[in-house]
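USER:
Make up one protein:

ASSISTANT:
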Amino acid sequence: MLKNKRLLLLTLVLIIAATVVLGMRVAYPYHRLTAFVLLGLGWLPLIASYRMNRQVLRVQKKIIKKKTRPYLPHAVVAIILVLAFYITGSLFPVEKSPLVNLRNLTESA
């Protein structure tokens, strides 16, 4: 169980590191790529922790309902990871938006 918590902590550290890389523009001009690689790597320990937890549940089939509680941290970290992908993609887009140089068409009429 301690190894699962360490893997979840590693996932959170990778999410925070990706956010810091984007916010402080570490490794400029490749800071976006670096951050998305860190976010992608954040999935690896999460999946490994999930699989380790799942193996424990397969062995103890009689008490599966009581053992579903350890999955709550995995769900929370997965939601945080997905939100981090969405937020960083929105705040720091990879491509320039085509809407940036649009004029207000109502003023020119």
In short: The chain is about 75% helix and 0% strand. The chain has one domain: 2-90. The CA atoms of residues 1 and 53 lie 8 Å apart. The two ends are 67 Å apart (CA to CA).
